[in-house]
Amino acid sequence: MDFRDKFKQLDLGIGTSLSRRPIFKYLDKETGKTIALKRIILRHELLQALPLTGSSNSRQEQPIDVGIPANTIRQISLYRILDHPNIASLEYLGNDPGDHFVRLGFEYVGVDLRKFQKDNAIRSRHPKLIKSLMYQLLSGIAYYHSVNASHGNINPTNVLISNYGDDNNDDEQVNLLITNLDLCVQPSYQAPEILLESNRLSTAVDMFSAGCIFGEMLIGKPVFDTENELGSIFKLLGTPTKQTMRGVIDLDEKLKKYQKHSPKDLSETFIGVEPAGIDLLSKLLCLNPKERIMASEALKHRYFYGIEAKKRVPTPAAAAAAEVGNSSVGPFAAEVGSSSAGPSAAMDSLAAGTSAVVGSPAASASVLVESWIDMVSAALDSSEN
Amino acid sequence: IASFIEDERNFVPGFDYLARFRSHPLDASARAHSVAWILKVYSYYGFQPLTVYLAVNYFDRFLYSRRLPNTGGWPLQLLSVACLSLAAKMEEPLVPSLLDLQVEGSKYIFEPRTIRRMELLVLNVLDWRLRSITPFSFTGFFACKLDSTGTLTGFLISRA
């Protein structure tokens, strides 16, 4: 089905993506669910035309004739299997008729963390609420890591808060979803090893970002500066030395321009936070990725004693998603049934035509191959409708 | 592990795939030919075994849900190239370009542009579900069971 028929654009957009395009929310006309749409460009020519900023996904240089970028394939096939109460599910996946880009529709409920904090300045700093939200955030990250993946871009715009109701609502009910919309964010929530351009990245990068978010929840404003990211990180956590960041990167060259700082006592910056919280924060904001706490360990940290992993709150979106999940047990079976009728007949007729052409000059053969792919694609579209 | 078993079902062709080879629409020898080619490229580039397994997995799943015109070798060859390219992109740290991938006596050479479109077609047919549950997912689990300390796990997996 055509995208425009299925979805209705909702509002003025929720931000600007890394490729300088606004991202909009859409309403699914059938199910009433809201999604946020992100586009992944497939054509390499187009990718190069865009000014790419710090997205970790775009760093890898690729030769021109590799087909669909490997990162895109890995990303989307990962989204396809993610299934966790604290991770926004992929609700829609389709490519445009010209095959220039893929549209990804992610479940979108509530508001992002930044807006939540702005609109609920007092509520959002309840220690109990922070604890519940952090637990959910780390659960989602732990799930990412359990399937051998890392999120790579944890920041307040990728964290959705829903079901918070009014001030009297139970803190335990508030729901958190991790999504991945590639929105431009200031300041950075990236780990120091990314900013130092280490080429050995790991799941630990997500943990540092989680630490930044934790700190931001505790003091109500971003922990690190916009302009001088590394400088402000070092100011709080100390400038790394060969001992504190051993083996990660060759430091001498890159650290020249930074002032030397010694680590500060976090409890002086984060006043009034319980000691267990300070301890967890220091383990998340550990400079050395190798010593940084892992998500599964962090969930067992004593800061979270008494918190239970919870089931997804049955928002309308989640309930509908569950239904879809059940009905799609045999996606291939369904497809085969429909394709055997109409499209395959079309293919047979095409087959009769192609047999003669294979031996003909290469140029016209490749045109024919193209037209054949068109045909099969068309068959695919028609079987979906 | 239970979820592996549950999920594996979504990543294999249906049970009647074999039966359809016996009846005529799918040609078993053509498939063997394609798989042999994939294996040749695998040894040429020293890919991981998982890459090959995935490529054949995509190949079979595509054939299970789509029929290709049964004439000439080129549709199957194009499918092989696209599947191998996708699998390599999923698993290999270094992926040869689409032209370089077509080595080891492939009869037809396709333009990168064409393969790109075929890749997209395969992705759409497979619903972008490329992280298949394979026997490799299980060996890791069983190796851990045999050797709980984890020292020999890597060795066991490599031997399996």
UniProtKB/TrEMBL annotation, chain A:
SMART domains registered for this protein in UniProt: S_TKc
GO cellular component: cyclin-dependent protein kinase holoenzyme complex; cytoplasm; nucleus
Keyword entries, A-Z: ATP-binding, Kinase, Nucleotide-binding, Serine/threonine-protein kinase, Transferase
One family name in Pfam for this protein: Pkinase
One GO biological process term: regulation of gene expression
InterPro entries: CDK, Kinase-like_dom_sf, Prot_kinase_dom
Domain of life: Eukaryota
TM annotation in the entry: none
GO molecular function, one term: ATP binding
PROSITE patterns, alphabetized: PROTEIN_KINASE_DOM (PS50011)
Residue span(s) of domain Protein kinase: 1-304
EC number: 2.7.11.22
PANTHER family cross-referenced by the UniProt entry: CELL DIVISION PROTEIN KINASE (PTHR24056), CYCLIN-DEPENDENT KINASE 2 (PTHR24056:SF254)
Protein name: cyclin-dependent kinase
Annotated source species: Cannabis sativa (Hemp)
